[in-house]
Design goal:
The complex is a heterodimer of chains A (about 80) and B (about 425).
Chain A lengths: L7 E5 L2 E5 L7 H10 L8 E5 L6 H8 L1 E5 L7 E7 L2
Parallel strand pairs in A: 2-3
Antiparallel strand pairs in A: 1-2, 3-5, 4-5
Chain B lengths: L2 H6 L10 H24 L12 H30 L7 H23 L2 H26 L6 H30 L5 H33 L8 H18 L9 H25 L6 H25 L7 H38 L5 H4 L3 H23 L2 H32 L4
The chains are: A alpha+beta (about 80), B mainly alpha (about 425).
Chain lengths: ~80, ~425
Amino acid sequence: MNDDAPGVSWQAEDGLHVDTRGLAPPDPLIAVLWHLSQPGQEGPVIAHFDRNPVHLYAELERLGWGHEPAEPGPDVVTLVLRPIE
Amino acid sequence: MSMAGGFLGGAHDRLLPASIPFRFFLSAAGFQVLAWAALLVAAGEVPGFRGGTGPVLAAIHLLTLGVLAMTAIGASLQLFPVVTRRALTRHWPGHLVFALMLVGVSLLCWGMGAHRIAAMQLGAALTGTGLAGFALVTAGNLRGASAIPAVAAHGWLAMASLLVVAGLGVLLVWDFADGFLAGHGAIATLHLVLAIFGFMGLLAFGLSLVLIPMFALSRSLPKGPDWGQLALVALALVLVAASNLPGASWLFWPALAAGLGAAGLHLWLMATTMKRRMRKRLGLSFRLIRASWGLLVLGLLLIAAWGAGAPIPNAPALIVFVLLAGWLLTFLCGVLQRILPFLASMHAAGKSGLPPLLSDLAGEGPLNLHASCHFPALVLCAAGILLDQPMLIRLGAALGVVGAAGFAVFALRIAAKLRRTVPAG
C-alpha cells in the first residue's frame, strides 16, 4: 500500500496487480484509476475486486483503456486492463 | 457458472429487481410535480403559515413524504445491500412498503388539503406503517454494514428519528380530530425538526460520505470528522427536544451551535472530497449539490437570526422553505441525477454482461430544463414569502412545476430504456 492509492499493488511477470478486496467504496475504483494515471503506465494491469466494479467501465472507456475478465474465482472478480491501441 | 456469470458474480446478485427502487423514484418524481402544484394553489396562505390543515400542509407533506421519503426509501433499499454486500433475500417487504406509502401519502395529503380528518387518519396510519416497515428492513441491512461503520451509524440514528417522526405525525393527525395534545404547536415543531435534520438530514449526511466521493472519484474520507458530525447532529436533536421542557428554552442556542458545528464538519468533509477528486468536470448534478450545501448554511443562519430576534418577515415559513425545497430537494435532485443512470447501468449489466455507458442512459435536455426552472423557482418563492407577495410564489411554483415535469421526463426515460433492457422484476 502507498499513501496515494488505497489497496495493495505488486509487480509480477504478467503485469501490475492491484488488489482492492476488502476496501469500502469508492476506494476500489480510486485505486485502479490512480494506478492507470501514473506516468509510463502501459499495462497490463490486473485488478482484483470482491464485487463487479460497475462504476469503473465508463471511466476506463473515457481513459482509453480496455478490459477483459480473467478466469473467475470464489468471491473475486479479476479484470485485465490494457490501453486500447 | 458462465464466464459472464462469474465475472458479474456479486453486485448483480445483490440488486433488487429494478422495478422495486424505480417505482419509488418514479413516484417521487410524480409527487414533486404535485408538491409544486400544491404550492401554486396554496400561494396565498404560504407567507403567514403557522400550521393547521389546508393546502400548505398538503404541499409540505407531498414534498417530505412523497418526494424526500420515497426517494430515501428507494435509494436505501437498493444501495445498502450493494454497499454491505448482503443481498435482501425477500422482495415482498419492498412491495408492501411501496403500496403502503403510495396509498398512505396520497390519502394523507388529500385529506390535509381538503380538511378531511378521516382520510388524514387512514393516510397517516398507512404511511406510518410503511415507514416503520422501511425502518425494519433498513435495520436488517445496517446490521451487516461493518465496512462502513460511520455511514451505518448515521443510518441507525436516521431510522430512530424516523420512528419518532412517524409516531409524532400520527399523534398530530389524531389531535386535529380530538384536540387531546396540550402543546400541539411545540410537538409539530419537534416533528418538523426531527424530520428535516434527524431523518432526512442524517441520511443525506451519511450517504454523502460514500456517494459524493464515488461521484467525484475521490478517496474515502478521513475517519473522525464523520463521527464528529454524527455526534453533533445527535447532540443538537437531543437539545432541541429538551428545549421544549419548561424553563429550558435557552437550550435552543447550544442546539443551534451543535447544528452549525455538524454542518461545518460536513462541509469540510465535502470540501476535502472536492479538493482530492480525480474527476475535474462534475457536471450539472454537482451544481445542484453544491447549491444545496449553501442553502443548508443559509437555512441555519436564518434560524440563528430569527432566534436572535432579527426582523425577518414570515421567518418560520421562509426557514422551512429554504431547508426543505432549498437544501433537501435540491440535494436530492442532484444525487438522483447520478444515481438513476448508475442503478440502471447496474441492472442492464446483469442482462447483457457489461453495463451501458451512463451517458447513453441519461438525457441532458430534461435535466437542463429542471435546473433552469428549479433555481428561479426557489428565488421567486423565497422572495414571495419574504415580501408577502403571493403572486411571486405562484410564479415560482409554476416554474417549479415545469422543472419537476422535466425531472420526471428524465426519470421516465431512464426507466423506459431500462425496461427495454431488463424484464420487470
